[in-house]
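Recall the central idea of this unit: under ordinary conditions, the amino acid sequence of a chain determines the structure it adopts. In this exercise we apply that idea directly, starting from the sequence alone.
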Amino acid sequence: EAPWAGDRPRLRRAFDRVLAWVGAAIVVTLLIVAAVNIPSGVQATRDHFAKRAPVAPDSYRASRSYPGHKPDLVFDKINNTWWGPGVADSGKGQWVEAHFNEPTRLLNIIITPGQSTRADQLSKSALPHRVQALITTADGKTTTRDLVLDQGPGPQPRAFRFGKVIAVRFTVESAYQPSPDKQVSIAEIEFLGPSHSNGS
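Accordingly, the structure predicted from this sequence is:
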């Protein structure tokens, strides 16, 4: 049956309905994606502008430690004390770990490699180059973050945004200046989170 003049064929009307449904589905999908991502975007913005404050771990441990240089010294906020595993060369696979009694939000870390911040002390030990951070959250899930440090003295800040953290393990993957008569050492690891003074 031929359509009357000015009428659209039935096939065309069906095709238009399909396009309308597809368009509606796309709009709904975009709205769902936006609804899911808006909270994380808001949190990221708050984190970016948040005032930072030091966050102290409640306990520490390490794979092994050189006598007199236990893991608590890497979290003591004093940059002329240090942790070392007492293993020569790069110390690959050796780790130091911090624990938090309460789930904690972290925004940044600051790592000071070597035995102090003084440039003339850098040659006394191997310096961590690549470090893998294993982050454990309150729900038992783990995430890894690869950190690459510079070969130089002084604190090295890195972005480190994770929520509800209960433990962070730092494992040495490689080192600068490895030697059979040196061990890798880390003077300080500092955690920073949002300051409570700004309501974050």
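The radius of gyration is 27 Å.
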